[in-house]
Amino acid sequence: MNYIKKLASFFIVFPFILSASCGVSEHGTESGGIDVSNDEPAISVGDILEVPSEEIDDKPDLGVPHEDEPPPEPEQLIVRAVAVGDNLIHQPIYSQANRRMNNAENSYDFSPAYENVFELIAGRELAIINQETLICNDIFPPSSWPSFNSPVALGDFMIEMGFNVFGIANNHTLDKGAEGLSACLDYWRTKDDVVVVGAYYDKEDRKNIRTKEINGITFSFLSYTEHLNGLVLPAGSPLEIGDAKDLDTLEIEIARAKGISDVCVVLLHWGQEDYDKIEPYQRAAAKRMADAGADIILGTHPHVLRDIEYIERVDGGISLVAYSLANFISAQDKPQTMIGGVLSFEVAVNSQTREAQIKDVLLTPTITHYDSKYGFIRIYPLSEYTPELAAAHGVKEFGHFSYDYIYEVLNNNVSEEFLVLN
Length: 422
Description:
Structural class: alpha/beta
Radius of gyration: 35 Å
Oligomer: single chain
Strand content: 15-25%
Number of domains: 2
Distance between the termini: 67 Å
CATH architecture of the largest domain: 4-Layer Sandwich
Shape: globular
Number of helices: 13
Number of strands: 16
């Protein structure tokens, strides 16, 4: 600041010096010019300011970091996520929801069926579900197995519950033919901030890989099914459904998806129904998908839980695979299909390197419970389920089921590191 003060003094003094040194002699010269002869030593700007060179070099701080300052620390971007299995809406589930609304046409209250697990979903920025049954925009009445269709009210409720990613590629995708699938896509297209994957209007629609940005992290989503229950699209239909058996296409699409996102999520409807072991071909396929760029692979279809694993990729990264998340809700009649789970995890991305990590992976077991003859179907977290409820479960009409049986299944099928049993 001394430099600034001295500079100001210079501009005050300088005019007087100038007038003194440049004044006209009283008698002038022969040429009539200015007499500049003077025996006094010249006065320099430096003499006036007397500014040391080190002060001149000391530039004001304009907020520009010095070269020797360390770069800012990278930020860890975090997204909290959950994923669940098959939302399989049999007739008793939608009929009970309709009765709660006094059987009024197109009126349903699904809340009591899910309310015990609201807190497992609420507050998560990313919530993924396999919507097993079509939602055909109410152009068809609700229907159950073997040709499912659920009312619009169900989809609306699942969104209200907090789900924002829906996989619709499964063995029931063509239950209502091309007309039903088109109507289903029409319904989902009206929903803002919701990602729907697995079926598409045409090839161009399929090329438009779905992404979602949350907390600075970009996710991409793909969905495929191994089976369509023997049904096929009619010749000439432009509709597209992801085929899990076409691994070459999967690898291409996964690589494209990873190229436009930080985290690639793949939903797979695969494996043998009612079988709780990981099948060898699944591990091989999961490895190919991981190496192609899949960070998270979520399996459904068997209706029972299978184990969870990490896969080391060729690039040195780690991918998460949940081979089967079982049922979220259903009215099936096999005891083991009553046992499902909510998979929770955190996605962390380095803001500079964009390296992603999947951490804090936990499976909170859930129980679908119904009374005798499929009465009042609802879900409980295992922490709220009791031996008394297990003893009264309506599924006991079809096979052995008990509180101890639940723990036996969980301990046999899911690695201890992932299980939440308290």
